[in-house]
Amino acid sequence: MASDTLTAASARPHAENVWAAARRDLDGLPGGGLNIAHEAVDRHAADPLQRGRTALRILDRTGTAHELTYGELARRSTRFASVLDRLGVWRGDRVATLLGPDPDLYVAALGILKAGAVLAPLFNAFGPEPVRTRIELGGVSVLVTTPELYRRTVEPIREELPGLRHVLLVGPLLDGLLDAADPDRPITRTAPDDAALLHFTSGTTGAPKAALHGHGAVVAHLATARSLLGLRPDDVYWCTADPGWVTGVSYGIVAPLVVGATVVADTRPFDVRRWYRVLDEQRVTLWYTAPTALRMLMARGAEEAHRHDLSALRTIASVGEPLNGAVVEWALQTLGLPVHDTWWQTETGAIMLATAADEEVRPGAIGRPVPGIEAAVLAQGPDGRARVENGHVTVIHGSAQGELALRPGWPSLFHGYFGDPDRTVACFADGWYLTGDVVRRDRDGWYRFVARADDVIKTAGHLVGPFEVESCLMRHPAVAEAGVIGVPDPAAGALVKAFVVLRAGVEPTEELQAELLGYGRRELGAVAPRAIALVPDLPHTRSGKVMRRLLRARELGLPEGDLSTLENPS
Ligand code: PRX
């Protein structure tokens, strides 16, 4: 079937100028080139009016605020780049961070970029197994972490990682190296297409994937943060995403610093009362958060919210999971502001669909394609993914439901999955990038999220690949086979649940069930299953693959007939 061409009417006007305008507002390296860290810090540090402004305000475990000015952050990250030189790190080498939002994380992340190396962030709540897989997958040669995380997460797998040449431990050791480092090391001259960021993500099948982005992505970070979040230099900005994930880097570090705002970060885990205190005491003006957190605040009721002065807040925005209309209504009533939804993915590198900060919110809808982005809804095949026939997809116009596709050409689109060209190619068809999300578009061009078209699980905003969890469980000597799905949860959207078939002769006892849960927690950390059911067998396709959709339908008590339209449990 021939593909229709999408008219420019579905993207907003002035689309073609958006990226060029944002690029003009960036500095570029002296003498040519583009480097994210230069735009984020050194540009401001060179400006006498901006140098002394607070770039970071980080609340430590006791709640004490540690501040770093743009000038200090620039100096320290330059020294970090020089430390990497001494370790033999070259342009393009992958350097991973396994850190929470501590000052060292920001220094390391920006230093890695200044050195022309590739920043590969790891979530610090991962267990040893996901960390091992990702370090191997990314060919990471240097890791920056804390002594505590090293002992807990890295030491057990260190010998299995011969390619990991150095581990830099933050604390006195790193401080000593920084003090002795070259304070005048120039930023490595990188071009927009040079690799900068390696973000790990998950698919339905196979190992995790490593999406590679270039320094040019900063153009999209700046444009989208300004036009959709409404981010301004005078903002006190709090992005609650962990810096071990793509949101925490792109919109938690890069975008706000490029704009020249003050970034607030909290190193302590989520707590309702404390989050309100942070909003209140730090006088946060722009808050980029996630539906899970908002649902947890909502569950606590309005009283706690009313104890705090939230009058500094100008905008609340959300990302990463479906934003229930009820949460938007609650926020409006209780916090005095609606929640502006934004949609994007690791691969897109920046926000693609959104309700901009200056637009009226429609509860339950994400919004529209952002300026500069052309989106389409594609007809689905029986497997739920876009139907591709003879290399062609079918674009549906007007009000429609189908797989969301985006026309490549924006500056933060991933360059590909590192070392996996086949999986990269599989993301594109007929001139479109296929997102794997099913959406519904209203007659007037507003998009709503319907479901994932594949089996990945979103739990508390984190993407979990069922294959990774199944593979880990199947390494346990008692396990013959495992099938992993997301089951509905009112707070986290979905929880990871495993269905496990035991090896012949192994008794399905409660002790074994508990042992398997503990094993999962130890090996996988944050992505471990929260529930495990021991079952006699699993449903399979004719080719022998576990039918996760059928498991999910059974779990939800849904009819097992048409699985292509099975909506997300969330
Ligand atoms: O299914 C969509 C969901 O999160 C996926 C992307 O996850 P990840 O690659 O981890 O990216 C994190 C950066 C956002 C999407 O394919 N998702 C993201 N935003 C929304 C969403 N689902 C519903 N509503 C959203 N606003």
TrEMBL record:
Q: What is its EC number?
A: 6.2.1.1
Q: Which gene encodes it?
A: acsA
What is the protein's given name?
A: acetate--CoA ligase
- Enzyme class comes to ligase
Give the matching Pfam families: AMP-binding, AMP-binding_C
Keywords attached to this entry? Acetylation, ATP-binding, Ligase, Nucleotide-binding
The chain positions of domain AMP-binding enzyme C-terminal read: 468-545
Write down the superkingdom of origin: Bacteria
Q: Name one GO molecular function term.
A: ligase activity
Enumerate the spans annotated as AMP-dependent synthetase/ligase domain.
52-417
Q: Which NCBIfam families match?
A: PRK04319.1
